[in-house]
Structures are given as C-alpha cells and as structure tokens.
Design a protein that fits this description.
single chain; 8 strands; alpha/beta
Length: 182
C-alpha cells in the first residue's frame, strides 16, 4: 500500500478522524498570542482534516493547508464550507518545494515532520526555512529521543522505527535530537 492510500484509508473512517477535530491547546494559545496584522499568512503543513487550519481561518488569518491525503482534504474542504471560511487547500507533501520563498508568517507542523527518515526531516526543515518570511515563526511538534515511544517497533534506520502502536501500524517515525532541531 502506498503512503497516500494508507493515509486516505485512515481518514475515510469518521471514528479515526474524531480525535483530530479539536485544536490542540498549545496551538490555541499560540493563535491567541499572535497579532493577525503582523502574522497574517499561515501554512498548516500536513494539516490532516484541518483542525488548526480552521482555527486560524475562523480568526481571520490567511490560511493555506497542505496534506498528502485527498480524503483528509475533502473533509477540511467540507468543514470550511460549513463554517463559511476560506482556506487555500493544496494536495502535496511537506517534502516537496511547492511554495515560493518567504510566503508565510507562520508555519505550523503539528505531528507531521517525524513521519519518515532523518533526511526527510532535515529536507523539510530546509524547505520551511525557505518558505518562512524573514521574521516568520515556525511551530512544530515531533517526538525526541527522550520520548517514551523511542525505540518501540522495528528499527529501520538510525533513530528511526517502524511503529507498531501508531495511528497506522507500520508508520516510519524519525526521533530527532536537540542538535537536529537546532
């Protein structure tokens, strides 16, 4: 099964989407601290069904949402229609150079960048740096080597495991170090 159909099959079941409808508290707090006039353009990278894209769009930010799963994007498109908000929705991967330089004031990558290998992680960080405006903000989450899940599953590369207890059993997860993140 390819990556896209794996994510599509996950998102097509409402029971697997329901957890992902509510924005994370840390992202809500971030949004509440931002001045929309100074940080108008937001990218939700690996947006899934769009809980964070919707949060920012409902607050008047210019939101672009990117995800690999057409099924997830269909859900987001429907929710945006229901809420009467505009979100630029793009099907693609966070590892593809799909945006011009300095396009965004904020890039959000919540539980996204660690899906894959270390080089995928590093390449994504380089692209994010390119896409961010010079004073832009980058908010992301990823498991580190201190995470309880580190070492669980089959090791497929250094610090990289095929997870057995993930959203998708068999997902490849890279566990970053502080040096990687820096």
């Amino acid at each position: 099964m390819d990556v896209e159909s794996n994510w599509d099959s996950h998102w097509e079941e409402e029971s697997k989407r329901s957890f992902w409808h509510e924005p994370d508290r840390a992202v809500i707090d971030l949004k509440n601290r931002l001045d929309r006039a100074k940080t108008p353009d937001v990218l939700d990278l690996g947006c899934g069904v769009g809980r964070h894209a919707l949060l920012f769009a409902e607050s008047g930010f210019n939101v672009t949402a990117l995800d690999y799963s057409q099924e997830a994007l269909n859900t987001l498109r429907q929710k945006a229609l229901e809420k009467g908000v505009h979100i630029k929705i793009i099907k693609g991967s966070y590892s593809e150079d799909v945006f011009p330089e300095e396009s965004f004031d904020l890039i959000l990558a919540y539980n996204v960048l660690y899906h894959g290998y270390s080089q995928t992680f590093k390449n994504a960080i380089c692209l994010i740096h390119k896409w961010l405006k010079s004073e832009g903000l980058f908010f992301f989450t990823c498991p580190s080597r201190r995470d309880d899940k580190y070492g669980n599953g089959e090791e497929v590369a250094k610090n990289t495991y095929k997870s057995l207890n993930s959203v998708h059993p068999g997902d490849i997860h890279y566990f970053a170090s502080e040096a990687d993140i820096a």
